[in-house]
Amino acid sequence: MYEERRQELIDMAISLLVLTLGFSIALSGDMARGLNWSRVLSLMPYVAFVLLFAFIGHELAHREVAKRLGYFAMYKADYYLLPLAIIFPLLFGFVFAAPGSVVVSPYRLYRQGDEKRDMFFIAAAGPLANIAFAILGLALLTATQSYFWHFFAYINAWLALFNLLPLPPLDGNKVIRSNPVMWVLMFAIAAVLVWRLW
């Protein structure tokens, strides 16, 4: 168990670092004129802070809900897709990120429960965390008028909306199959947040 948790921590740290670099490259400016590495490095601390909530918060929400429902769950990086988070910004100027996911045991380790209900709660936890962070960022933006909080809110809102698309293996596919009404509500909230922050 210790080795598995240690590997999970390593996977999360590597995923966060790669995503931070990818987003910083994408935000650094006009790729046609060449990459400004000093700007990339200056952006990385801010991007890392945002992704600590938007990415790590999202994945930990999945994991903790699964654990509370009696499942074994842990984050695993996808080392085949993870490099795309850097390759796409370098080539095309935007981030395509599929760094990994929380893998949930198909068998409940303890307690009784309803599989369909459990699937909804586990899948919905990540996007709901992003929605909550986006609302927090929007409140801080209103209070401070700081571009940083706009970026914080927008990234969280966009990740919530993207993850709620009803396509496998995204969270939205699981949410809509287990509770279509809640999927519509969550998707609408995420879409309004993205529209408000665009």
UniProtKB/TrEMBL annotation:
Topology in the lipid bilayer: Multi-pass membrane protein
Localization, UniProt: Membrane
Swiss-Prot/TrEMBL keywords: Membrane, Transmembrane, Transmembrane helix
Transmembrane segments annotated in the record for this chain: 9-28, 40-58, 79-99, 119-141, 148-168, 180-197
GO CC, any one term: membrane
Signal sequence range: none
Keyword Repeat: no
Major place of residence: membrane
UniProt superkingdom: Archaea
InterPro entries the record matches: Metallopeptidase_M50B (IPR052348), Peptidase_M50 (IPR008915)
Stretches assigned to the Peptidase M50 domain: 144-178
One record GO biological process: proteolysis
The protein's name: Peptidase M50 domain-containing protein
Lineage of producing organism: Archaea, Thermoproteota, Thermoprotei, Thermoproteales, Thermoproteaceae
